[in-house]
Amino acid sequence: MKQTVTLAPMEGVVDQFMRDILTRVGGFDLCVSEFVRVSQELLPASVYYRYCPELLDGGKTAAGVPVHVQLMGGDASLLAESAEQVVALGAPGVDLNFGCPAKTVNRRDAGATLLQWPDRLNKIVSAVRKAVPDHIPVSAKMRLGFQDKSLYLDNAHAVEDGGAGKLTVHARTKLEGYKPPAHWEYLAPIREELKIRVIANGEIWTPDDFKACKSISGCEEFMIGRGAIARPSLAKEMKGELTDKFQWSDVEALLIHYNQLLLEMKSDHRRAGRLKQWIKLLSRTYDPTGALFANIRKLQDPDHILKVLGKPIAA
User: Over the chain, what HEC string results?
Assistant: First the structure.
């Protein structure tokens, strides 16, 4: 099986601008959009274009990487209609969110809360699979469970039996959130029992993490999110296309380009927030002391932030 790397959907972080930057860097085979919440009625096309403007460009980033649209909700019929709609708008694939741990999402019958009922996962996946043409991939992303891991295999089978072509598993429960460690050992039984592709996700920050996850899970396909933000070269390193992380000067160039893309937001405050959000994660790789983020934390002008970043830091 070919080794693949997918850029994870991260609400408010991996938007069209970050997808543009990171897929230009390279190493990614696929992106998944931020989730589109479907709750009471069909959404206008403008909502899908806002979350995934790549729909207007053949469903691909400027670098040519496909972007599948992720839907989230608990109503199988409404999700099926929404999937049909988004495919008509140009989505090259549909992904279903059974993993979001946010309390506001889970209180509204969506995301990880659905992992308590494997039959509902099956019903949703089945409805979506039937609603879209056979050539359109349907996939799902889930966690190992809601409060515990007792249903992890039942949920995985429910997704497969519903007709999904692949399943991404974030190797933690909803209750565990994003606290380390990720339990990669649970991925091996899923991969062994399912006939569909299983993609490993969770706590892959470095090439060493990737190697450990691959060894423990036996997976050949991976999804990375925070690790890719903190180490923009990570996907290429995982593919063996680079032997070490980018130099800080390379990262600074990415930040400058990112800031130019963010001009579309028409708000200095929002641009500054997005820059600081990325820099905070970059500090994990490039500045373990935290001085990098501390120097720009209170700044509100994107140009001032970039000027401070131009000063040398310890790699």
Answer: CCCEEEECCCCCCCCHHHHHHHHHHCCCCEEECCCEECCCCCCCHHHHHHHCHHHHHCCECCCCCEEEEEEECCCHHHHHHHHHHHHHCCCCCEEEEECCCCHHHHCCCCHHHHHHCHHHHHHHHHHHHHHCCCCCCEEEEEEEECCCCCCHHHHHHHHHHCCCCEEEEEEEECCCCCCCCCCHHHHHHHHHHCCCEEEEECCCCCHHHHHHHHHHHCCCEEEECHHHHHCCCHHHHHCCCCCCCCCHHHHHHHHHHHHHHHHHHCCHHHHHHHHHHHHHHHHHHHCCCCHHHHHHCCCCCHHHHHHHHCCCCCC
Q: Where are the domains of the chain?
A: 4-238, 248-309
CB 99 within 8 A of CB 114: no
Query: In this structure, which topology does domain 4-238 adopt according to CATH?
Result: TIM Barrel (3.20.20)
Tokens of 159: 């997704």
The answer to whether residues 52 and 33 touch, using CB atoms and an 8 Å cutoff, is yes
User: Which active-site residues does the annotation give?
Assistant: 100
5 closest CA partner among 236, 215, 191: 236
Q: Count the neighbouring beta carbons within 10 Å of the beta carbon of residue 266.
A: 8
Q: What is the pLDDT along the chain (315 residues), one digit of tens a residue?
A: 789 999 999 999 999 999 999 999 999 999 999 999 998 899 999 999 999 999 999 999 999 999 999 999 999 999 999 999 999 999 999 999 999 998 777 777 889 999 999 999 999 999 999 999 999 999 999 999 999 999 999 999 999 999 999 999 999 999 999 999 999 999 999 999 999 999 999 999 999 999 999 999 999 999 999 999 999 999 999 999 999 999 999 999 999 999 999 999 989 999 999 999 999 999 999 987 778 889 899 999 999 999 988 754 444
Q: How large is the angle between the packed helices 76-88 and 118-131, nearest 10 degrees? A: 30
